[in-house]
Amino acid sequence: MFAQFALHERLLKALETLSFTEPTAVQAAAIPKALEGRDLRVTAQTGSGKTAAFVLPLLHRLLSEEKPRSGARALILLPTRELAQQTLKEVERFAQFTFIKACLITGGEDFKVQGARLRKNPEIIIGTPGRLNEQFNAGNLPLGDVEVLVLDEADRMLDMGFAEDVLKLAGQCPAQRQTLLFSATAGSGLREMIEQVLREPEHLLLNRVGEINEEVRQQVILVDEGEHKEAVLFWLLQNEPYEKAIVFTNTRVQADRLTGRLIAAGHKVFVLHGEKDQKDRKLAIERLKQGAVKILIATDVAARGLDVDNLDLVVNYDVPRKGDEYVHRIGRTGRAGAAGTAISLVAHTDWNLMSSIERYLKLRFEARSIPGLKAGYKGPKKLKASGKAAGTKKKKTDAGKKAGAKPAARRKPANKPKAAPSAVVSNDGMAPLKRRKPAAE
Ligand code: AMP
């Protein structure tokens, strides 16, 4: 809910009018930090709702302390005229119940007309760096009162050769301003700009969905908790074509238990979890890299940043609790564009979680079953529009009762994930999406 941010009431009213109810992930992360007055570096894609993530705190600041005699109080730089126009529209929508005025200064427009616009002393100036510099050089752009500087799509501004213009404009704004820098990528190309324009920024990284390689097949297998689930894992490790595999569990206890079971069954396995010390961790990773072991059992924390070539199978023995965790796990395979398979084992109690992850990623996992190892659990009888199970009273014993029931309808193969979740994302990063038809029973 936007009300949680304690934004100015006129902004909340605008949000209500615009039917913005839930903040997107980038908004949930950036708005509170920006309201604290911190400098931020945000990695988020277009379509993630990032415009509101900087416009709302910026307007809140202008509304909280009126300064009728000051010059422009906020400067928003963008790489293209189209983006600048869109941003102006967003500003006007959010500022509709205020007296705050914004103006647009981009190339391809009459220079003098723009000069006249600037003389009206708008609180917010939105524009492209080249033309803004020309206006500055002509003495039309007072920047001495700027309190908030926004660099949106900073990576693109660099690509388009605007670095010098951006730095020059930033250098004209007061040093004690707040600066918010947004970019779609988190590469090192921005380092110099970040060092020059931001002060002790917090980095919010929100584009993980984009990290999934489209060469990775994403599948789900319905399972029954306990022996059946374990049998499916054993089958996969025995029969699935792979060079190296990583099996994720949600707990250390589960990781140790599975490791013991696999070793007892004759597999060469290493386990990685938070209780293992650095030496064990290094050894496990080295052995996996060398190919001395093919299978690693790991928890999320232990597998952070793991980069092993030819790791082509990821099994989610336990469904991860969050979309970002899923993305991280899947990112262990298919590195540098290589192909891979990610298989999640979904029991009765995991269905809704799995469906939330699908919505977050905006894709549908491919349903798969193993001949001779079908689960009693066939998926929910009915689905809500959200894709979650309808009317799920906890009746665990239902699973397995309907012998001979047909398997859940095979769903389409996973598509390439689109951009980061756009509108309406709840705080855990799960975005509602138009649903598929209920899976057939
Ligand atoms: P942006 O990434 O800022 O370009 O935003 C993408 C689109 O999502 C724009 O049309 C926004 O108006 C819309 N949008 C942003 N945040 C929300 C939200 N919390 N609820 C509904 N729509 C939103």
From TrEMBL:
The lineage of its organism: Bacteria, Pseudomonadati, Pseudomonadota, Gammaproteobacteria, Pseudomonadales. Belongs to the DEAD box helicase family. Keywords: ATP-binding, Helicase, Hydrolase, Nucleotide-binding. Residues 31-204 form the Helicase ATP-binding domain. This is Superfamily II DNA and RNA helicase. GO terms for cellular component: cytosol. Residues 215-378 form the Helicase C-terminal domain. PROSITE patterns: DEAD_ATP_HELICASE, HELICASE_ATP_BIND_1, HELICASE_CTER, Q_MOTIF. It comes from Pseudomonas delhiensis. A motif (Q motif) lies at residues 1-28. CDD domains: DEADc (cd00268), SF2_C_DEAD (cd18787). The keyword Acyltransferase does not apply. Residues 379-396 have a biased composition (Basic residues). One of its GO terms (molecular function) is hydrolase activity. Residues 1-28 form the DEAD-box RNA helicase Q domain. Residues 376-441 are annotated as: Disordered.
